[in-house]
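Obj.: predict assembly geometry.
Materials: sequence records (below).
Method: joint structure prediction, all chains together.
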Amino acid sequence: MGEFDLIKRFFVREPSQAGVVMGIGDDCAVLVPTPGMQWLISTDMLVEGRHFLSTVAPERLGHKALAVNLSDLAACGATPRAFTLALALPRAEEGWLAGFSKGMFTLADAHGIHLVGGDTTQGPLNISITVMGEAPAGTALLRSGARAGDDIYVSGQLGDARLALEVFRGSISLPGAQFEQVRRAMECPQPRVALGQALRGVASSAVDVSDGLIGDLGHILQRSAVGAGLDIDILPCSAVLAAQPQALRRECSLAGGDDYELVFTAAPEQRAAVQRASEQSATPVTRIGRIEAAAGLRLLDQEGQVLPQQFSSFDHFKS
Amino acid sequence: MGEFDLIKRFFVREPSQAGVVMGIGDDCAVLVPTPGMQWLISTDMLVEGRHFLSTVAPERLGHKALAVNLSDLAACGATPRAFTLALALPRAEEGWLAGFSKGMFTLADAHGIHLVGGDTTQGPLNISITVMGEAPAGTALLRSGARAGDDIYVSGQLGDARLALEVFRGSISLPGAQFEQVRRAMECPQPRVALGQALRGVASSAVDVSDGLIGDLGHILQRSAVGAGLDIDILPCSAVLAAQPQALRRECSLAGGDDYELVFTAAPEQRAAVQRASEQSATPVTRIGRIEAAAGLRLLDQEGQVLPQQFSSFDHFKS
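Observations (raw C-alpha cells):
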C-alpha cells in the first residue's frame, strides 16, 4: 500500500478505551455492551461539493464529518460509544491527514467516542462514518412521539450556516468578522449530545435539524401524525442574521440546512424539566410553537397571522 | 430529492425483525443486544475500478458489497445482526437499484442480517457498509491467538477470483464455461459465516483472505508473534486453476486476493473438532501448514524444499 501506511499513522491509536476489547487491528472491533442499554446506530456519507466545499480546512472537515453523525445520536438521546470511518482519498497528503484526523479526534475525545474500525482506499473524496451509542431500554427519543398540545422547542440558533453558504455562492456579502462567525457555524457545528441525553424522559419526540427546520420538523409531524403552528418571528438567530432583510432571515432560519440543532417536543407540564435539561447541558433552548391535532404546518408571524408556505427543504449544495 | 425517493423504494423494508426496535426512518436505528454477547463491528468501502469492475452486474455487486463485510464477521466467529449502507451514486437508475438491492437483500436474508440504517447521496459510485454481529463474551476469533505447533487451515478454494481478473486484464484467456466459473468466484464470494461460528472455541486464530493468503496469514503471524511453514502444493484450488501453469497457479493461490475464504489455526488436538466444524457448516477445510516459533513465513513445495519468497500482497486493482 505504501502511501496508505501514512494513513494508519494518523488514525490508529491505542485501544485502551473502556468497553473496547479490540479496536482497529483485527477483522472486527469487539465491544462490550452496557447491561440494560439498547444500541443506537446511524450512518452519514459526505461527498465533496455536495456536503462540503473544497475550501474547507481539513481540521474543520474532520470535525464536521463526525459532528453530523454525533448529531443523529444526540437527536435520539444516546450516549456516544464508538464509530467507524471509511475514507476514499484521491491521494494521501500528510498535511491533509494531520488536519482531518486532528479535527475528528478532538471532537471524538470531547464526547468520549472511540474510533474502532476503518477502511481507507484510493478514490474520489468520500467520508463515510457510522456511529454507535447507547440509551437505557425504551428511552431513545424518536420522531413518532409528538402529541397535540405539546410545545415545540429548538436548541441554539438557526440559519447561520445557510447565510455563510449564500456568501460562498456570491449572492450576499458580509464584513470579514461576521463572515468568519457564520462560516464557523457552517464548518464547525456543535452536536447537541449533552442536551439530547438530558431530554431522555422529558421530550416526547426529537429530530436534528440538518435539512432545515421546516423539513425536519416535518419528519416529526409525519411520523407522529400531527400538525403544528410555528412562531417564525421568534426563531432564535445570531445578531448577524438578525440584521439581514426579513425574507433572507426567514429563509435561512426555516429552510437553511446544516444547522445541527435539535428540534423537539415536550408536554407543557415538562416546561420546568426542559429548562433544567437546558441548564444542565449548558445549551440554550427556545420554545417556538406547539403541536396541533390538525395536519399540516402553519407558519405564524408576530401578529399571529398565518403566512403562505413558500419554503422548501434544503438539499445541501444541490441548487 | 425527487429521484432519491426511488432509492427508498428499494431499500426501506418493514422493521419487523427480531431485536430491531427501530430500523430505517428515524435519526438512529435502535437495537436490543442479546444478554451475555459482545458486539463485533467492521466496515468496508468499495470504489469502482478498485474493488470492482464496471462490467459487474448490479445484482452481483449488491451481493459482493455485503459479502466482503460478512466475511469479516465470519473471520471473528460472529453471528450477523445488522448493517448500514451508505451509497453515493452518480444518478438513480431504477434497473441498477433493483438489481443491487436484490443481490444485497438475498444475501442478507440468507444470513439473517438486517439493514437498519442508510444514507444515499449523489456522487461518484461508492458503497460503504458497516456490519454488526454478536459473539458470546470472550469467544471472538482474533488474529493474535496462534501458537507454535498449531495447524494452519484454509476453507474452500483459493485463486479463482484472481484468475478471473487476469482474464479481464487480458493476460490470459479461458474457455467460456471456465471463465464463467472463475468470474462467479470473483463477483459472488460466499462469506464463511457458518464455519466461523462453528470454529468458536476450536480455532486459536482466524482471518479472512481478502488480500491474498500470504498477506492475510501474515496478519496472524504478526499479531501472534510467530512464524509458519506453508505447503503450497496442497493449497486447495479449482480444476480450472489446477490446469494452469505452476507459476500462475501459485501466484493466484498465494497472492490472489478477493478469495473471502477463512484461514485459521488450531491446536493439533483440535483436528477432530475442526473436522466437525467443517461438516456442521458444510464448508470444506484443508490443512495447509503449521505455526512455528521462528519468525517469518516459509513456503514449502511438495518435496519439502523452501522456495524463495516472491509473492507480494494483492492490492486489488491497483496494478
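Conclusions so far: The first strand of chain B starts at residue 20 and ends at 22.
To do: check interface contacts against the pulldown list.
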